[in-house]
Amino acid sequence: MKTTPFTHKHIALGAKMAEFAGYNMPISYTGINDEHATVRNSAGMFDVSHMGEFILKGENALDLIQRVTSNDASKLTVGKALYSCITNENGGIVDDLIIYCLEENKEYMLVVNASNIEKDWNWISKYNTKNVAMTNVSDATCLLAIQGPNATQLLQSLTNLDILNLKYYTFAQGTFAGVDNVIVSATGYTGSGGVEIYFENVDDAANKIWDTIINLGVKPIGLGARDTLRLEMGYCLYGNDIDDTTSPLEAGLGWITKFSKDFTAKAILEKQKAEGIKRKLVGFELLERGIPRHGYIIKDAAGNVIGNVTSGTQAPSLNKAVGLGYVTLENSSLDTEIFIDIRNNPVKAKVVKMPFN
C-alpha cells in the first residue's frame, strides 16, 4: 500500500487504518459520529494527499481542458477554480475534478480522484495533440482539508493571506505556517465551509504544517466522516454515484455540462438532453428502520425493480437513514414513495430534496 507524508501521524494517533484507492488511509480516530459532529460544529482536518494533481502548461492548455471536460474553464481567471467532469465517448463520466487557474490561458492545476490518477492521465494524454506540457505532481503534493465553520478563523493566524474573506471556489497562494508556495483554496467536500491547502513536502513542510494546525486544537478526521458529511449534502462520490456508465445529466450535473463549447460526448449529451433521460440520481430518506447500502435494489409499490442505491448511511447530523440512488424518471419526483430492498425486506422510503435536512 502507498502512504502519504502523514501516514505515520495517523498511526501514532491511533487511527483505524484501511486501504483506500491503494493508500493506507485513516478511516476514523474517535469514531465517525464524533468526527462528523466536530466538522459540522467546529473544525477538523482531513489528510487527502492521496488525491491526484496534474499541471497543464502552455498556450494550448485551456483548449485541451475545454476538449476533455464538460464545464466552461474559459471563464476562469487567476485565483478561481471550478468543479467539472471528464466525459468519455459514450457520455459517461471518466472522473469528476476541480480545475484551478494558476495563470490565465497558460497554466492550470487539475485535481482528480486518487483511484483515477492513471486513468485520467491516459485519457487526457490521448487528446493532447498540441504538445501541452503535462506534469503529474500527485506524489509530490500534500493536500490537507481543514473543514468546518471555525476553520478559517482558526487558521488565519498562520498566514498573511486573507483567508477569512476567500469566496467559495477561489484560492490564494503564499506563505502558510512558515511554508512558502502554499495554495489555500476555499473548497472542500463537506458542506461545512473551510479550506483545502496544497503544498510540496520540502524541508519537512508536511510535519511543520500538520503539527502547527493540530496545536491550534484542530482535530484530525478520517475518511469515514468525510463520506457521511458529503452524503448529507448530496455530493456524488466517484465509483459509487457516478462512473463511466453514468452521464452527468442523469447524475444531476447538468449545471457543469456546458453546450456552448465543444467537448468529448457533447453530441451524445445534447441528444440525451433533447430526448430526455430515462433515469435520474435522487436523494431519499427511509421512513422505516434500516440502513440503505450501495448496490441495494430499489422497487416501486408494486414490487417492480426501478433502480439501485449508490450511497447510503445513517446520517449523524440528521438522526435518520438517507441515501442516493438511480431510479426511473417516472419515480424521481419529490415525495415519491419507493422501497429499498434490505435483506429481501422492502423498506419504505421517499424521494426528498438535497441537501438532506
Features:
single chain, 357 residues, alpha+beta, Alpha-Beta Plaits, Elongation Factor Tu (Ef-tu), domain 3, six-stranded mixed beta sheet, six-stranded antiparallel β-barrel, 8 helices, 20% helix, globular
From N to C, what is the helix and strand string?
A: HEEHEEHEEEHEEHEEEHEHHEEEEEE
The strands making up the biggest β-sheet line up spatially as 10-11-12-9-3-13
Describe the sheet with the most strands: 6 strands, mixed
CATH H level of the domain at 53-137: which superfamily? Aminomethyltransferase beta-barrel domains
Mean pLDDT: 98
Proportion of β residues? 25-35%
CATH topology of the domain at 53-137: Alpha-Beta Plaits
Topology:
Elements: H1 7-12, E1 16-20, E2 23-28, H2 32-41, E3 44-47, E4 52-57, H3 61-68, E5 81-87, E6 93-103, E7 107-112, H4 117-126, E8 133-136, E9 141-147, H5 151-155, E10 171-176, E11 179-185, E12 194-200, H6 205-214, E13 219-221, H7 223-233, H8 266-275, E14 279-286, E15 297-299, E16 305-315, E17 320-328, E18 337-342, E19 345-352
Parallel strand pairs: 3-13
Antiparallel strand pairs: 1-2, 3-9, 4-7, 4-8, 5-6, 6-7, 9-12, 10-11, 11-12, 14-17, 14-19, 15-16, 15-18, 16-17, 18-19
Helix pairs in contact: 2-7
